[in-house]
Amino acid sequence: MSTVLTVFDRWKEFLAERVDQAERVGLNDEKISNLAFQIGEFLSDKVDPENREERLLKELWDAGDENERKVMARLMVKLVNKE
């Protein structure tokens, strides 16, 4: 497996662990999605993408309006929950 995919897989694992922690402390899906949105905003503004997948996510994030970004955040949470 390429390094890029390994790094992206590690990022998804990290996100999945954080979502699991949030669920264990009693946060509902809406609150988790709101946190994912806030994290996405921070990452988009402050962190330079390190690989193609992160660059794609940033470009999609930047192209969307607030509602589309919230949908994207919910989709990322769903992505890691299904794995």
- The CATH class name reads Mainly Alpha
| Helix/strand order | HHHH
Structural class: mainly alpha
Quickly count the domains.
Answer: 1
Low-confidence stretches: none
The helical percent reads: over 70%
> Span between N and C termini?
18 Å
Number of helical stretches of at least 4 residues: 4
For the largest beta-sheet, the strand count, sense and barrel status come to:
none
Shape: globular
- Rounded to an integer in angstroms, the radius of gyration calculated over CA atoms is 13 Å
Query: What is the CATH topology descriptor?
Result: Cytochrome Bc1 Complex, Chain D, domain 2
CATH superfamily: Protein of unknown function DUF3243
Return the CATH architecture. Orthogonal Bundle
Strand tally is 0
Pfam family, one: DUF3243
Protein name: DUF3243 domain-containing protein
Please give a structural write-up:
This protein has a single domain (3-82), classed as Protein of unknown function DUF3243 (Cytochrome Bc1 Complex, Chain D, domain 2). Helices cover 83% and strands 0% of the residues. The radius of gyration is 13 Å and the shape is globular. The chain contains 4 helices and no strands. It is mainly α and 83 residues long. The protein has helices at 3-24, 29-46, 52-63, 66-82. Helix 1 crosses helix 4 (66-82) and helix 2 packs across helix 4.
